[in-house]
Amino acid sequence: MKPIFYATLLATTALLTPAHADSSATISTVQQSTIKESTVFKDILKQIDAERMLIQADLSKKEKELKKKDQELAEAQKKLSAEEFEKKRKAFATLLDDVRFGLERKKIRIELAFEEAKGKVIAEFSKIVESIRAKKGGVVLYTEMVAASDPKADISPEVLKELNKKLTNVKVTFKSDDEIKKLISQQQQAAK
Q1: Nearest C-alpha neighbor of 27 from the set 113, 136, 138, 135
Q2: Whole-number Å distance between alpha carbons of 97 and 103
Q3: Residue 36: predicted pLDDT
Q4: Model pTM?
């Protein structure tokens, strides 16, 4: 473990130290959590949670319907022939699969929407960090990657202030069920 750490430290130092070292070059840090602290990111989470609540309500409704159908199937078993019961059991199994696959598509739908919206925030975050770096010169490292640094080097508050000012709203866009089915089908074909 130590050789890897030292090799990484040496490589980082070599990359960050130009051949003709400029003593005015600065190293700034920014916390990755700055993105999550932003107003826009919190709004994205609210939009995602609202969609999850709708899905949960729909799922609860379907769960009640499935329980009722399961009870009806259990009662029907006493009255139906084995062949008729098997048809109804298969139909119920198909219904269960439809609900399960529908839920999977909804999970994918939420994940895709979240990643797309988060990507917009990350893109703006990166622009802001680069803008600040260009003004100050030097490099910006994630605070989480630095063993120790001067707290004055942390530009996170400045980045957060700018991010909250420049990006006030990102509308989370949820793909339709048909679009999700198409994406899944494309991925399955690509995997073949």
Answers
A1: 138
A2: 10
A3: 97
A4: 0.78
Structure-token match 């988060």, residue found: 118
Is-contact 139 28, C-beta < 8 A? yes
How far is residue 160's CA from residue 140's CA, in Å, rounded to a whole number? 15
Residue with tokens 């949960």: 56
Tell whether the torsion through CA atoms of 70, 72, 78 and 84 is positive or negative. negative
For the stretch 147-162, pLDDT in tens is 998 999 999 999 999 9
Helix (H) or strand (E) holding 140: strand 139-142
Own/partner contacts of 132-137, CB < 8 Å, gap of 24 or more, are 132/28, 132/158, 132/159, 132/162, 133/28, 136/26, 136/28, 137/24, 137/25, 137/26
Helices (H), the chain: 2-16, 34-37, 39-79, 82-136, 156-166, 177-191
